[in-house]
Give the backbone structure.
Amino acid sequence: MKDAIFLSASVPDPKQNAVYHQTADVTAIREAVIALATYILPQTTLIWGGHPAITPMIRVVAESIGVSVQEKIILYQSSFFEKDFPIDNKVFEQINLIQKRDTRDESLEIMRGEMLSNHSYKAAVFIGGMKGVEDEFYLFKKYHPDTSAFPIASTGAAARVLYERNRESLPESLNDEYSYFSLFRRLISFK
């Protein structure tokens, strides 16, 4: 397997933290996830921690472009959220179900540690999201300090926060480009 791409993405829930929801561009989040999956899946493996708003999009893209979800997708889930798993999970064979711990935070910490430490990554992409996307960004940089991590600021929410904190080392296109397929093709080369 070539080095995988890590995806951290979610659609902010206004009931959880209004700060993320205020800048979120839900259309841009959807378009960025679809463009990333469309570009990456024919090239290499996509790995992410399953989110009920993101997993169905990736399943639809994989099926529409004829990519084997068994070969190109690795999904991580914590059993803490088992009652909330989307029905789309059933099409993925490579689900790494991580045993839950006593609390939500402990369960997420263990799952994220395994997801980010058990693979070699070519790059990471952060789209929309809330605190979990921020947590995964910093954990990714801890395990893979020399690997590119791209917060797509134009999708707003946590990705915008991450971009603002690290903008001196990131391309401006992450903030102002909405042609996501072209953006990902320039950022992540497979030649």
